[in-house]
Task: structure prediction
Amino acid sequence: MLVFLGKWAACIEPKGGLGCHGMKYRHLILLPLMAFSLFSSAKADPLKVGDKAPDVTGITETGAKLNFGDFYKKQTYTLVYFFPKADTSGCTAQGCSLRDAYDQLTKDGLAVIGVSHDDVDAQAAFKAKYSFPFTLIADPDQLVSKAFGVPNYPMVGLAKRQAYLIRNGAIIWADYHASTAQQAADVLEVIASQKN
Result:
């Protein structure tokens, strides 16, 4: 697409310009610049253990606003997990892992929030299809993802799979390569270690 736009721009130049034949030289300049801008855009670093958990507001699968700062205070632990795309195999396995262990997680004082760049309708359908008992956040504008410093997969713009366990408003565990089917087991292990 960018090559097409480049040729179009070259072809409408007045006489004496590079014209369509000078396009090969223009590619030599444009492609490195485009690659540099793609990979050099400033990104926040993901949050680390000990960092304050973001007090950001997101939109739930019902379309309601959810203030994360208020939500953290309602229980001992909050798990905020990020997944690339609703209703895909890995994201479904991750969500189902948390759903299947939800009774144990809540017994341990934990609430779950799932976040992806999907819109409200996609999150609502995903939650309904798999009977997730927890909140999903629609984050197409990436406000929540950016607040946590969650990077995107290059070229596709989907959030990387990460998970953060929060207690007393601070990150106590960060998983930068969050598991899919083992997500709940990983979280339960961390909670168990907190009790010892």
In short: The mean pLDDT is 84. The beta strands are 57-60, 65-67, 77-82, 110-116, 135-138, 162-167, 170-175.
